[in-house]
Amino acid sequence: MPRIVVVDDEAIFRRGLRAMIESLDPEWEVVGDARDGYEALELLQRMQPDVVLTDIRMPKMDGLQLQTIARERFPELLCVVISGYEDFSYVQQSMRSGAKDYIMKPVEREDLARVLGRLKEELRAKRSADPAEAPKDDRQLRQQASDHLVAGIMRGGVQQQDLDLLGQLGIELDDPYFNCLVIKLDKESVERERYRQSDPSLFQLYIQQFVQEMLDHRMPGFSFIFSETEVAALVNQPDMNMTPMLEMAESIRRQIKSLSNLTVTIGVGRPVKGFESMTIPFREAGIALLYRLVVGGDKVIDYRNAAQSNFFKSDMKKWSWEELEKAINEGRRDEVERLVEISIADLCAKAQTPELVHQQICKLLIHYYELSEDLGMTREWLGDKDIRTMLVEICSISSSNELIEVCRSLLGSLTSGIAAGNKPAERDPIQMAERHLEKHYHEPVTLKDIADKVFLNAAYFSTLFKQRTGKTFVERLTEIRVEEAKRRLASTDEKIVGIADTTGFTNIRHFNRVFKNETGVTPKEYREGVRSRR
């Protein structure tokens, strides 16, 4: 017996359709009805019908949005739309999106009987066919691509085959730069009872489909469900200009709020060259999203602003944070615990509200979470606890003594891990700066950027860097870039102009001039010389 669900925002119309279906063909079972797209998705999840008969115009989530999400989540479901003549353009959109048929209002018995009869025959034919012979559809390919991307991100590396899968879906990502968004539903924007009774993945599906539609109109990219609470979007762009990405993120935030009364917070990473490097902006977007605990939800948070802001801006004495940073990197746990106690007591005494205390502590801990990620010791530091859970727990503490004790324990254990020497820990600001340059040489790095990152005045950092390394900051950065260029010239067939671009040089002329100054030969002469000696 085929099963059908009826969706319309008018109760009298739902009852009328139910009665008409049951009288036309007793073989059809109406297993439920819903007044909007959200209720319909919950009903489809619970009842698993064969067909959904839905009105186009409804509040909260209309029939087109319902159809889009249902097609992703329930690929075998057949959809029929109902519309007035004035909405026929919506019917055309719906048919292009895969609707099996449409019925115009007011619904005539003959029209409904015709559609039900055709659907019943199609369901019979489908059930008699061998499902093993069915070709892999776009939904299966999309799921496979999503699974591959999530797995690659989790292990810290993606591969060319992941990009090839997207190509099979017709998603061509040919531009050289990649970036990402991570979008998180603000649960407080959903009625508590509705969220509790709903399958949370339905909200994720709605957001994912919405983001993909935005990508289809704005920038080449691919959206997918990254976790139980987050949707991610991989975006391809021709250059490192962040403006189109941020404008799109803001448009996603505004339109989701306008159309569904849901709010989301969006973290945005920084663009990188090459698909294989795109795990970097995913990580950055996730870290930007952590700042939701500090600045609140319903916002677009740019990692650049979060990472470069003054983490410890408050009425507290800045020296305490700088001393704390130094003590942690030098592995002096007793000193760290002493400074934590002094600093947090000072913060609690001077902050005007509890929220300001929590904000400063969260900023501090996010900073050290980034450090632990860089050192590869987050699991050793936090165990099975997630950083988000830890920050939520911090924000629930109302006792200064308890806050001091928790932070002493957290930062003390991080310090012990560094002191144990199990990880390649940076012991001082210059080591941290060197390591950052080695990882980010291909980006437009400035002396002030690095000085801010290691909590030093730019002028003092410049002097200290020269004393410790024997080179100026610019000389060392140039040296790292030229060494990487030499490695690629010797070991790859990359074009010289491409090597110049991916090693941080502004243009090929600049690259040729600097390379010759450093090595005495041009890049072409260097490559030919290396190969002639093989």
Describe it.
The chain is α/β, with parallel strands linked by helices. It has helices at residues 11-24, 37-47, 63-73, 88-96, 109-128, 138-155, 160-168, 192-197, 200-218, 243-260, 279-290, 292-295, 303-308, 318-329, 333-350, 354-375, 378-382, 387-395, 400-419, 429-440, 447-453, 458-469, 473-491, 496-502, 508-519, 523-532; strands at 3-7, 29-34, 51-55, 78-83, 101-104, 177-185, 221-225, 230-237, 264-268, 272-273, 300-302. It folds into four domains: 3-133, Response regulator (Rossmann fold), CATH 3.40.50; 138-306, Reverse transcriptase/Diguanylate cyclase domain (Alpha-Beta Plaits), CATH 3.30.70.270; 318-419; 429-532, Arc Repressor Mutant, subunit A. Strand 1, helix 1 (11-24) and strand 2 (29-34) form a beta-alpha-beta unit. Helix 2 (37-47) packs parallel to helix 3 (63-73), helix 6 (138-155) runs antiparallel to helix 7 (160-168) and helix 23 crosses helix 26 (523-532).
Strand content: 5-15%
CATH class of the largest domain: Alpha Beta
Question: Helix segment count?
Answer: 26
CATH topology label of the largest domain: Alpha-Beta Plaits
Whole-number mean pLDDT: 82
Give the overall shape: globular
Structural class: alpha/beta
In the CATH hierarchy, what is the superfamily of the largest domain?
A: Reverse transcriptase/Diguanylate cyclase domain
Helix content class? 55-70%
